[in-house]
Amino acid sequence: MNESVNDNLKRIIAGELQLVEAYLADALHTGSEDFNSLIRPLALSGGKRLRAQLCLLIALAGHSNQDQRVAVAAAVEMLHLATLIHDDVLDQAAMRRGHEAIHCSKGNKVAILSGDYLFAKAFDVVAQIGSVECLKIFSFVISALVEGEFLQMEDVFRVDQGVERYLIKTQKKTADFIEACLELGGILGHWNSEDIVLLKRFGHALGMSFQITDDILDYQATEATAGKPVGKDLREGILTYPLLAIVREDNKAYIEGELRRIEAGGDAMEFMSYIAKEGGVIEAEKLNATYVKEAQDALTALPAFAGKEILLGVLMSLAHRKV
């Protein structure tokens, strides 16, 4: 695919993202001014719109209806925002997309209701296009996200959870959603079933790589580069792959002691340096490379289509991003 074709496709996607923004602005205008003042600024402050872009790209590469793909891409963003709002309540985060988190200004009850409304609205949008397949995908994603969150809560400061448990949580909390966006695009674009399987395989590997790269960056960032205190996950007891990969019988007691100290309010930086020195980051990089290869293999197996090179670029930029 030559550069001019890719550039043209990127322009089309950018134009459709503007339609998604307009759709969100219209759909999230309710009779409650209090709700409007809370949700609409968050919805329209954007973010990367990665999930919407993936859905649009694959739908455009097939034979899809613009109204349907814009609606589903908007519903994907509603679903994503709902999970962020609920995550902020669970994590007691103070800011979201440059705005004060809803639970900070209005309390947990309003924040949870706001997220619930977005879940319901996303389902309503998808129901209107009349695709049972798409509705099933949205149901699956929500179930996976909730299951992943429950598992994460169960595993706070739990050293013996193991890397397999971590991978299950990562799949449920991140990869399943990204995989679903590729599948939604394939359904809207009327791709054949064999190619949709490959799209899903690519999406799964992309999602796993995306999260593992985030975990790696936590150990490479400083407050200056991250723009926020580093080690946040560790201080909250969220143990990611770099740590779990180095747990052995001969250091387990030391790690548990360090985590008790951090849980009590101790500094995490020295322990994070220990994890890096023990090879935790290197092991995470190795795992990331396997998922990058898995995604590349799935993409190679797909027939030529408009946007194939763009997908490869997305994979490389997300998997190799730096602090």
Number of helices: 16
Q: Please, what is the average pLDDT? A: 88
Morphology: globular
H-E string: HHHHEEHHHHHHHHHHHH
Reported for the largest beta sheet, the result is: 2 strands, antiparallel
Class by alpha and beta content: mainly alpha
Classify the beta-strand content into a percent band: under 5%
Count every beta strand, where a strand is a DSSP E run of 2 or more residues.
2
Spatial strand sequence of the major β-sheet: 1-2
Task: Please compute the radius of gyration using only Cα atoms.
Answer: 20 Å
Low-confidence stretches: none
Helix content, binned percent = over 70%
The N- to C-terminal Cα distance equals 31 Å
Provide a descriptive summary of the structure in words.
The protein is mostly helical and 323 residues long. Helices cover 76% and strands 1% of the residues. The protein has a two-stranded antiparallel sheet. A hairpin with a 2-residue loop joins strand 1 (95-96) and strand 2 (99-100). Helix 15 (280-301) packs antiparallel against helix 16 (308-319). The radius of gyration is 20 Å and the shape is globular. The mean pLDDT is 88.
